[in-house]
């Protein structure tokens, strides 16, 4: 028993020494998420009128109230939030509205499509919508093989059907939730150095 305790303490000491680099994980989360949100926000801002129309239309859009306000909030949160993630500034604070944005997207846009972002009938998460897409995909491939340069068209990857499920929104939400609790991370963020300079905390 004493040997096991000694081994555990040894392993624990190793892990404690590795903690000096624990800022790398939140840094990578931030750098992964930032371009995703910046691009999404930029697209909404660049096509603001059509975005607001889609937000507000109950027939072919989301049917949200005050669509211009909602579109502006979503676009601004994503675009400027992505910039803050890169800098590692106010990361815990900006994670909150970004998580709200992901929840709204998941519930209003993706929920009815199930989990999968790309239709994959072999997945145990495939729903009826995904299973039904198999026939459509096969027919599409047949049409392309008969009438198009199929080898060239598939030279950079296979054709797939976008299922547009909640997979990406849920994944981004979990990553943001992690940043909300861990903060921007040590050494590689403005939050860390501000906290250190003001004496509020050794860690951001």
TrEMBL record:
Record family assignment: Belongs to the DoxX family.
UniProt subcellular location: Cell membrane
Keyword Protease: no
Entry membrane topology: Multi-pass membrane protein
Keywords from the named record: Cell membrane, Membrane, Transmembrane, Transmembrane helix
Coiled-coil ranges (or none): none
One GO cellular component term: plasma membrane
Organism: Neptunomonas concharum
Signal peptide: none
Entry-linked InterPro entries: DoxX, DoxX-like_oxidoreductase
Predominant place of localization: membrane
Protein name: DoxX family membrane protein
Transmembrane region(s): 20-42, 69-91, 98-118, 169-188
Keyword Transmembrane helix: yes
Top-level division of the source organism's lineage: Bacteria
């Amino acid at each position: 028993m004493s040997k096991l305790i000694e081994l555990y303490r040894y392993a624990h000491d190793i892990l404690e020494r590795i903690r000096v680099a624990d800022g790398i994980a939140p840094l990578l989360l931030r750098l992964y998420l930032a371009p995703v949100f910046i691009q999404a926000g930029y697209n909404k801002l660049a096509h603001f009128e059509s975005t607001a129309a889609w937000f507000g239309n109950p027939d072919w859009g989301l049917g949200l109230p005050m669509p211009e306000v909602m579109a502006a909030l979503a676009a601004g949160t994503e675009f400027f939030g992505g910039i803050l993630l890169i800098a590692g500034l106010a990361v815990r604070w900006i994670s909150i509205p970004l998580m709200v944005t992901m929840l709204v997207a998941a519930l209003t846009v993706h929920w009815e499509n199930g989990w999968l972002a790309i239709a994959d009938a072999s997945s145990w998460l495939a729903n009826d919508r995904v299973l039904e897409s198999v026939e459509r995909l096969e027919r599409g491939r047949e049409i392309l093989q008969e009438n198009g340069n199929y080898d060239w068209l598939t030279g950079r990857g296979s054709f797939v059907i976008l299922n547009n499920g909640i997979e990406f929104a849920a994944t981004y939400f979990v990553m943001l939730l992690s940043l909300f609790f861990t903060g921007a991370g040590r050494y590689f963020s403005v939050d860390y150095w501000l906290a250190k300079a003001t004496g509020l905390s050794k860690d951001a």
